[in-house]
Write a structure and sequence with these properties.
It is a multi-pass membrane protein. One of its GO terms (cellular component) is mitochondrial inner membrane. The chain is an alpha+beta fold. The chain has helices at about 1-25, 30-35, 45-85, 150-155, 180-185, 200-205, 215-220, 225-230; strands at about 105-115, 125-130, 165-170, 170. Strands 2-1-3-4 form a four-stranded antiparallel beta sheet, with no helix packed on it. A hairpin with a 2-residue loop joins strand 3 (about 165-170) and strand 4 (about 170). The chain starts with a helix and ends in a 12-residue tail after the last helix.
């Protein structure tokens, strides 16, 4: 930035000097002619001055345009490194925590209070208590914004409750290894996301590591998706797996 500032100042001075020479030679041509001094301001010299002025103006305009871009890049870089250096409160790559050999699926929310970090002035849950027993089908019903999706986000530990406890089989979910905890859940969101890849790859993304064809086919059948996938145009019963 200092170099660009100094360079622009020097170029401005040279530009002004060249402009004065051209202005004197062209604007005062009668005076030049009266002194018979045309040879001191010949056409090729005037052309060189105009050409130099044109190139200098282009150079100055291009160099000056870099200054705001450089400033934007500096500010953006600071923001990016700030995000990269920030330590997440919920780190999905953290392998610490316990796991269970056998999951029954008893879920309980005890006196949960929660506000989204981006909206700390809006209370989402206040003293929420909810028990979901293993093998039971439970529906959360309410108008848009009532907190149905927030319950799932808390179960998946995208957020931690401000107070209260959420347990799985009697164990507080913060004590589990996060990756393991999320692998115990199957989620079909209201607006599913499909990556720009094959159907096989999209299904395989649900399992860490490589999933074999039998596992992918079983997952599609359990999700009641195998029939309509196979019925798609140019997709056969086995072809969609590859």
């Amino acid at each position: 930035m200092k170099f660009m500032k100094g360079f622009s100042a020097d170029a401005k001075m040279m530009y002004e000097g060249a402009s004065q020479v051209a202005n004197d030679a062209v604007g005062s041509i009668r005076t030049v002619a009266s002194f018979c001094a045309e040879e001191k301001t010949s056409f090729d010299n005037v052309f060189r001055v105009f050409f130099a002025l044109t190139m200098a103006s282009i150079g100055i305009s291009q160099s000056s345009s870099l200054a705001p871009d450089a400033s934007k890049a500096k500010n953006s870089t600071a923001s990016i490194f700030g995000i990269l250096d920030r330590k997440s409160k919920i780190d999905s790559s953290d392998d610490s925590g316990m796991t269970l050999d056998n999951v029954k699926g008893e879920i309980e929310l005890r006196h949960v209070n929660f506000k989204y970090p981006t909206r700390p002035d809006i209370q989402i849950f206040r003293d929420l208590c909810l028990a979901i027993h293993s093998g039971k089908t439970v529906a959360l019903v309410g108008e848009s914004g009532s907190g149905k999706s927030t319950v799932i986000a808390l179960l998946q530990r995208f957020y931690n409750p401000d107070s209260g406890r959420i347990t799985l089989d009697g164990v507080e979910i913060q004590k589990f290894q996060l990756r393991w905890l999320r692998q115990q859940m199957g989620l079909v969101s209201q607006e599913p996301v499909l990556f720009n890849d094959t159907i096989r790859a999209n299904i395989a993304y649900g399992k860490e590591g490589d999933a074999n064809e039998a596992e992918i086919l079983a997952a599609a059948e359990q999700a009641n998706a195998h029939k309509f996938i196979s019925a798609l145009q140019q997709v056969g019963t086995v072809q969609y797996l590859f």
